[in-house]
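// run 5 | inverse folding | seed 20
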């Protein structure tokens, strides 16, 4: 170092290494103590833990600088010593007070750094496992999943419970994958929307079944839906049905229903030809009695060679419940709900159709969508029902706010995330869902279908404007009356031919 030569050997020179090293160590020590206090005050700041690692690093670098400083001082004091070894070598004499203190301080500093390192890694580990880390740190990327997660049934289940398994192999896998993702975010190369299905998702056996027990499902689950029709009065049309979700063990409807047949008494395998597993041309069922049946799609059959080359997937919870935690509501359902709850006033003529249309437009950003939604509704009412605009009607303002809120909660144009990007596989109304396999085109060699009989999956108890009065034959329920035309639907009809979840159904 040049500055060392600027001082005479009689005067003790200021050694910058020693000075900077001590400052770094001091800062590291002080900051970590400060952080302990800060963390005690701020309970909800999970990623502060990463800072401990940084402070430990500062202390280690500080110690390194001290060492360089010591070597240099000895060199300055005794320039005759040549070579690195000669510079470092000194005899340790514990009887010498200074040596004793030096050893004790180095030992204590080492212990402190070690403690800081382990505490820091533990803290950072905990931080990367917390839901808010996953959901908020990559804010724009995870925004759609984070938003939908917070209103789901699993809002208190940490992301890692479903996305990362127990054990070291999953931990390493997920952190390596995490690094790849951080890179993709940094260089802005990630895809929008984030592709689903997630291929390294933790298997259902290890996630869902930690809390839910497939043997234990109660025979029926009641489903109540409130629709709003497209007429001027926004007439209510409600539906009450029982879904046959039965499992194996309950007394009532024992051994029957969706979960029993699909998961316990049978193994179902299938091939999908698209990434999202929406087109399923081949299915095989192996029943508990050992019988096996294969079904092929008549519309788009696979050749034997294609079958041999394809990935065969065994059906599990996630093939039906693919949106347990991130449900992107379709505009039709969201608007139906908002009108039923009164957030959108039913008194505004044709508000159902107009709200669904406003939500179904393509927008580039959420900000544009907020303006677009407001303009489209305001323009419509200015032209068709000016009384709602001129008198400064509260109703229109409330409706606009509610529709904007629906948009923000379920459609994310920046990430191209919405109900159409992430179809929900439960049901068959706005996306193919169960009808991916339960349809007329799927046939076995004997010409049998995978059944499409409505009543095998659910019983309709009541439908119409009022659903309070239930008087039905419990074995068959009611025949579904299609609200649009009053037609009864008894046989298989593909709802998705007309229903898209958005404004398309009104075209
Ligand atoms: C109850 C289980 C569960 C929890 C809790 C959960 N997820 Fe998911 N997540 C899923 C499933 C299931 C999928 C869809 C997987 C598939 O289709 O392959 C998914 C998909 C995703 C996707 C891919 C895009 C998409 O919407 O399909 C992202 C990103 C994601 N989750 C992030 C998160 C974040 C962040 C959290 C915590 C804030 C979280 N998840 C919590 C089960 C869960
Ligand atoms: C850590 C425990 C836990 C895990 C893991 C978990 N769940 Fe749940 N789940 C719950 C609890 C608790 C409820 C009830 C929540 C309520 O009633 O608000 C629930 C409710 C549900 C419901 C009924 C509510 C609804 O939204 O229709 C379904 C379906 C469901 N879970 C499916 C799944 C699936 C599929 C998985 C795996 C991807 C899963 N769960 C993983 C704890 C869990
Ligand atoms: C064949 C499709 C299918 C599969 C596979 C499936 N479920 Fe379900 N599950 C349903 C349907 C349909 C319902 C009715 C509720 C609904 O419509 O949201 C339901 C309801 C539930 C409920 C709510 C029960 C209640 O009493 O409210 C839970 C919890 C659940 N499933 C968990 C699971 C778990 C865990 C698995 C995997 C072991 C699984 N499901 C596999 C279709 C399926
Ligand atoms: C393979 C099983 C299955 C078959 C067959 C089936 N459904 Fe469904 N259906 C479901 C499930 C599951 C849901 C519940 C969806 C949910 O939880 O949102 C549902 C929901 C519905 C709903 C309420 C839709 C909504 O989203 O509001 C109607 C109406 C309906 N079915 C009518 C029919 C009619 C009519 C038939 C016969 C042509 C039929 N279903 C056949 C499984 C089936
Ligand atoms: C991957 C294809 C596939 C999908 C998707 C699928 N199923 Fe099935 N399902 C089958 C096959 C195959 C069988 C067995 C048919 C047989 O044994 O002949 C079956 C059987 C059933 C049964 C048993 C009926 C009985 O009493 O024997 C019910 C209930 C059922 N499915 C409901 C549903 C519901 C509800 C959904 C949507 C949430 C759904 N399935 C989605 C392929 C599928
Ligand atoms: C030929 C086209 C067509 C088919 C197929 C069809 N629908 Fe519809 N459906 C419509 C139209 C158009 C409307 C709008 C009528 C209105 O709201 O006044 C509608 C409205 C509805 C509504 C009330 C509006 C809402 O909020 O969802 C329900 C429920 C419904 N259909 C269920 C079904 C189900 C379940 C199936 C499949 C079994 C089905 N539809 C098949 C055209 C169709």
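// decoded
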């Amino acid at each position: 170092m040049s500055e060392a030569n600027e001082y005479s050997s009689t005067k003790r020179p200021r050694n910058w290494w020693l000075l900077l090293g001590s400052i770094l160590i001091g800062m590291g020590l002080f900051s970590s103590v400060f952080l302990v206090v800060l963390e005690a005050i701020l309970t909800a700041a999970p990623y502060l833990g990463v800072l401990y690692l940084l402070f430990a690093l500062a202390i280690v670098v500080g110690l390194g600088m001290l060492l360089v400083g010591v070597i240099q001082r000895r060199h300055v004091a005794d320039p005759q010593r040549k070579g690195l070894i000669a510079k470092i070598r000194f005899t340790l004499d514990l009887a010498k007070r200074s040596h004793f203190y030096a050893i004790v301080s180095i030992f204590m500093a080492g212990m402190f750094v070690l403690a800081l390192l382990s505490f820091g890694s533990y803290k950072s580990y905990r931080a990367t496992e917390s839901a808010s880390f996953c959901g908020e740190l990559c804010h724009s990327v995870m925004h759609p999943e984070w938003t939908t997660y917070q209103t789901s049934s699993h809002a208190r289940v940490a992301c890692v419970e479903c996305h990362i398994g127990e054990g070291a192999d999953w931990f390493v896998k997920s952190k390596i994958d995490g690094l790849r993702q951080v890179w993709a975010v940094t260089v802005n190369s990630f895809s929008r929307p984030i592709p689903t299905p997630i291929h390294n998702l933790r298997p259902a056996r290890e996630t869902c079944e930690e809390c839910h027990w497939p043997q234990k499902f109660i025979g029926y689950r009641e489903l109540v839906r409130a629709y709003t029709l497209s007429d001027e009065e926004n007439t209510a049309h409600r539906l009450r049905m029982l879904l046959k979700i039965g499992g194996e063990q309950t007394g009532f409807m024992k051994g029957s229903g969706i979960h029993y047949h699909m998961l316990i008494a049978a193994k179902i395998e299938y091939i999908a030809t698209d990434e999202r597993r929406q087109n399923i041309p081949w299915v095989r069922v192996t029943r508990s009695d050992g019988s096996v049946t294969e079904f092929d799609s008549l519309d788009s059959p696979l050749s034997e060679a294609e079958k041999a080359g394809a990935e065969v997937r065994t059906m599990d919870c996630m093939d039906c419940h693919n949106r347990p935690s991130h449900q992107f509501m379709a505009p039709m359902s969201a608007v139906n709900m908002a009108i039923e709850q009164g957030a959108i006033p039913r008194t505004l003529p044709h508000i159902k159709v107009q709200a669904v249309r406003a939500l179904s437009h393509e927008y580039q950003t959420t900000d544009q969508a907020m303006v677009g939604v407001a303009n489209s509704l305001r323009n419509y009412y200015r032209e068709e029902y000016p009384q709602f605009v001129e008198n400064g009607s509260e109703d229109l303002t409330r409706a606009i706010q509610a529709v904007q809120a629906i948009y923000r909660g379920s459609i994310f144009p920046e990430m191209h995330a919405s109900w159409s990007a992430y179809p929900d596989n439960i049901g068959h109304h706005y996306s193919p869902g169960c009808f991916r396999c339960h349809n007329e085109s799927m046939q076995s060699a004997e010409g049998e279908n995978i059944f499409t009989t409505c009543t095998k999956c659910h019983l309709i108890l009541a439908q119409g404007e009022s659903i309070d009065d239930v008087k039905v034959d419990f074995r068959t329920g009611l025949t579904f009356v299609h609200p649009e035309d009053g037609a009864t639907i008894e046989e298989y009809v593909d709802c998705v031919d007309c229903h898209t979840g958005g404004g398309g159904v009104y075209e």
